[in-house]
Automatic annotation (TrEMBL):
Residues 3-223 form the ABC transporter domain. This is Putative ABC transport system ATP-binding protein. The keyword rRNA processing does not apply. Belongs to the ABC transporter superfamily. GO terms for molecular function: ATP binding; ATP hydrolysis activity; transmembrane transporter activity. One of its GO terms (cellular component) is membrane protein complex. Coiled coil: none annotated. SUPFAM superfamilies: P-loop containing nucleoside triphosphate hydrolases. The keyword ATP-binding applies. It comes from Ruminiclostridium sufflavum DSM 19573. Pfam families: ABC_tran. Keywords: ATP-binding, Nucleotide-binding, Transport.
Length: 223
């Protein structure tokens, strides 16, 4: 899918406490892109990610997916769209602590009233190197393993796009490298679009297109 924003802006607050969190962002994301967005804390990364994924609505400007304005969807249409087309990966993994790795991975399917897909689960577990961890609870796994489970969960619905919000933020450098290698493989071999948010320039370099955001102003880095 192609994602395009035009002059996309988000303003929080009014009067003196008014903050332009995102200032007229223009970005065209093609289906075959691996994009990184780098910026310091408070620069507008989360705001941009929330707007791009339809978790939040803009103050002005537009966003389209293959020409469709997803902000015009009803809440129900939008959550179905997100569930089916977008996979999310977070800094804190966000696994449910009482469920096994396998149950966590299947959760999006259950929420969408779909049947578990054993073959696809096996394929993902193999790709991510967690075959022998599927019956474990999150607290029995290392950080890197938890993130790999979370990546499998993000892929189980076969989304077109993965949004990754500081996916290595809680990992040591070895696990970070492993996770970045996996994301790179998922991009190149599974043909997913990836949008990665990070404050780490080393991590950002894995992407084929790099953007920086500073004080809400987004710009592409030409490399
Ligand atoms: P980052 O993810 O890069 O840390 P954010 O997008 O969270 O940046 O924040 C950008 C700016 O918008 C910051 O100044 C932040 O304090 C402000 N901000 C973010 N969310 C809200 C909100 N819900 N209400 C008010 N201000 C907000
Ligand atoms: P991140 O680590 O992703 O940058 P933040 O600490 O910036 O997260 O913000 C976490 C959440 O809190 C964001 O999703 C944002 O909506 C909200 N938030 C951030 N800054 C503010 C603020 N100044 N006022 C209210 N909510 C905020």
């Amino acid at each position: 899918m192609n994602i395009e924003t035009k002059e996309l802006s988000k303003i929080y607050g009014i009067g003196e406490s008014r903050i332009i969190a995102l200032n007229k962002a223009n970005i065209k994301i093609n289906g075959n892109d691996f994009i990184s967005i780098m910026g310091p804390s408070g620069s507008g990364k989360s705001t941009l990610l929330h707007l791009l994924s339809g978790l939040d609505k803009q103050t002005s400007g537009s966003l389209t997916y293959d020409g469709r304005d997803i902000y015009s969807f009803t809440d129900r249409q939008l959550s179905a769209f997100r569930r089916q087309k977008i996979g999310f990966i977070f800094q804190q993994f966000n696994l449910l602590p009482v469920l096994t790795a396998k149950e966590n991975i299947y959760m999006p399917l259950l929420l969408d009233k779909q049947k578990p897909d054993e073959d696809y689960l096996k394929q993902l577990a193999n790709l991510l190197g967690i075959d022998d961890r599927l019956t474990h609870l999150p607290h029995e796994l290392s950080g890197g393993q938890q993130q790999r489970v979370a990546i499998a969960r993000a892929l189980i619905m076969k989304p077109d796009i993965i949004f990754a919000d500081e996916p290595t933020g809680n990992l040591d450098s070895r696990s970070s490298n492993e996770v970045m290698n996996l994301l790179y493989n998922i991009w190149s071999s599974m043909k997913k679009t990836i949008v990665l948010i990070t404050h780490d320039s080393r991590i950002a370099k894995t992407a084929n297109r790099q953007f920086v955001i500073e004080d809400g102003i987004l710009s592409e880095v030409t490399v």
